[in-house]
Amino acid sequence: MPLSHESDWSFAASNDASSEACALAENWARIAGLPEVLILRLVLVIEELFTNTIKHGYCGESNRPVRISLVRVDDMAHLDYRDQGPPFDPIHTTFPIPEDLPPAEVGGMGLHLIQTLGCSASYVYEVGWNIVRLDVSATQTSARVEALIARKGRK
Length: 155
Prior knowledge:
Number of domains: 1
CATH architecture: 2-Layer Sandwich
Structural class: alpha+beta
Number of strands: 5
Distance between the termini: 41 Å
Helix content: 25-40%
Shape: globular
CATH superfamily: Histidine kinase-like ATPase, C-terminal domain
Oligomer: single chain
CATH topology: Heat Shock Protein 90
Number of helices: 4
């Protein structure tokens, strides 16, 4: 079935499903004709949200739902991400990352990536669902984002 410029998927909260969601989003973005840098950012945001859902929201892999919707809006991807974990706002929650923390022990960076790779971000907890909405753009650049990515990649 061909993907349109609007897609809506449901998954069980598992690592395999996270990989599938990222692959579907990447394929969708390519078919939608979005630029490579936007595709990379979109996949990274979905991966971080999904990982946080499994690890913190559902406290492990489960059959509990994760829903992802994507819509192309001009040269951006609009992401609607939903889970049924306890209320948690990844858009406005921050955790300080100590400067002397070894790269292998970095935690909390996913929130920073979600917050800086998306624009026009919003969060609401509604009828048992965490709902994160954000636009991902190819033109948004940030020195903070590049530093976080470089730091996460250090061995």
